Amino acid sequence: MATIYDVAKAAGVSAKTVSRVLNSDGPVGRETRETVETAMSALGYVPSNAARMMRSQKSGLIGLITGAISTAKELITRPAGLPDLFILQGIQQVISHSGMTLMIADTDSRPDRVAPLISTFLQHRVEGLIYIAEYHQRVELPRLPLGTPMVLANCFDRIGTPSILPDDERGQHDLVARIAAAGHRRIAYLTLRSGISATHLRLQGYRAALVAAGIAYDPALVQDCGLEENEGETQLLWDAIDRMLRLPDPPTTFCCGNDKMAIKVYGILRSRGLKLPEEISVAGYDNYRTIAETLFPPLTTVELPYAAIGVRTAQRLLAMISGESREEKGPTLVSGPVYWRGSVTEKRQLNVTHLKTVREDYQ
Q1: Looking at the structure, do residues 200 and 349 belong to the same domain, yes or no?
Q2: What tens digit of pLDDT does each residue of 270-313 get?
Q3: Quick one: 212 and 151 in the same domain?
Q4: Which of 91, 98, 118, 317 gives the lowest tally of CB atoms within 10 Å of its CB?
């Protein structure tokens, strides 16, 4: 393997001159630089990163911990997608243009692997760390040595580590506000499981949008329907929809906790003889395009901006590493737009008479 001295001999310069070319830490003429670079290329010289780290105290490395790689097989079986993979892609887009190198480690879906992975990254003297969660949640991570910057993506902790989160409250608010603006006054909400942060925040957004539209909140129109088991979730959805359609004043729109849930709601409503969107409307959340754009009618939904979360995460960490980051309290929230498609119709177009007939048939 060629050394710096071999390059110096081939270029006819001193080893110090070669070092200046490598590290850009001293004046070197254009012709001399080109001669040295030509010699390095001809000899296949690879600079020693370890030696450079010892001189500069900087590794040029960023460590990233995720579960995206070990769960990639779920792309086939899990139509909701892999949020952490999309976040990772956004991070990579930024890091690839920063001159730094991203080192990625996968947890294999085991929380106990996080601490050892952080320790390994610190041994490699990474200049910063990123941790990605697969959904909006609170996490507990080991404390880092003072001065080691870290940013959390799609999650947060108790001690206020800088974090980048989806603005779930605003997303649900904007969706419900748009549905209300279309004339709907009875807007049902079939939520994800109650124990997660997104559900709590989205429910706040749902209620705030109703208040802003002058619509009274009705707890009979809100039901937790989220389960990991598909069959159990389908049963909960059928029961919730059945009870809501039996109300004296049934809903004209069902908002779903995510787009995957909306697929099941489409089927349940059609099994009851209802036409979408002529007789009842449905909205989702996530904007997974493989679902939203292929359903008939196409699904009205809210974008969860995972790629943008990744970009903001990388930008925040790079700013912290460079010392340019401003002191910010609380998480950075990233919002996405409402995609208005054919599954929600103007209220005046709904066949309310038929909806009441269907309800009476099941009573």
Answers
A1: yes
A2: 999 999 999 999 999 999 998 999 999 999 999 999 999 999 99
A3: no
A4: 98
Domain count, the chain: 2
Instruction: State both tokens at 213.
Output: 């539209």
Q: Are residues 268 and 149 in the same domain?
A: no
Structure pTM? 0.78
Domain that holds residue 250: 168-300+340-361
CA distances from 222 to 210, 218, 256 (A): 13, 7, 10
Q: Which run of H or E residues covers position 69?
A: none
Tokens of 291: 């679902």
Burial class (CB in 10 A: 0-12, 13-18, 19+), 29: exposed
Q: 26 in a domain, yes or no?
A: no
Q: Tell me which H or E stretch contains 353.
A: helix 352-361
Look at the alpha carbons of 110, 114, 115, 120 in this order and tell me if their dihedral is positive or negative.
Answer: positive
Coil, strand or helix at 270 = helix
The highest-confidence range among 30-44, 170-184, 313-327, by mean pLDDT, is 170-184
Domain assignment of residue 13, yes or no: no
In a domain, 261, yes or no: yes
Kind of pairing between the strands at 163-166 and 187-191: unpaired
Amino acid identity of residue 34, one-letter, is E
**317 token code pair:** 């960490």
| Nearest partner of 286 among 78, 119, 92, 115, judged by Cα | 78
Cis peptide before 116 (omega within 30 of 0): no
CATH of the domain at 110: 3.40.50.2300
